[in-house]
Amino acid sequence: MNIYLINALLVLLVIRQIREHQLDLRALAVPVLAVAAAAVMFLHAVPAGGSDLALDLACVLAGAAMGAIGGLATRLRLGADGRPLGRAGVLAAGMWIAGVGARMVFYFAATHGAGPAIAAFSISHHITGSAAWTAALVMMALADVLTRLAVVWIRGRRLTSTGTPVPAAPDLAAAGA
How many CB atoms lie within 10 A of CB 97? Predict the structure, then answer.
């Protein structure tokens, strides 16, 4: 499989999140397993030379921010059986697509003419090479997925413990509607 197919599959996971679904172990595990599979395929090492760790941190923070926004913008309610149901709105789905899309665009650019510019940027910012970029972008995806799922899971637990709907954050609900 090439990177485009993997990223397309990750985007298709959004469709699954847009439909209302039960927040069970399977719903939480599928996105984690998809990103973990991508990590196994592409993350062979985490370079730590130069500014590689700063790049990793920046990408992890960006992924976590997108995941938190996506998790807060997911609508939750109790189902008839008392279990939480979730549905990603426009903003939640947009965060996921933006992250996957940004990584696809970076990869496409790197392999279709922007490689020398990325190499020059890497040299001037002390990034050791393509393995550092790969590691940072894979960790960005992992942070996005894990943060989003953690936020949704915590909100779902609050919902089931109180029985009171836990709406998406007010500012995010308006933007994601």
Answer: 14
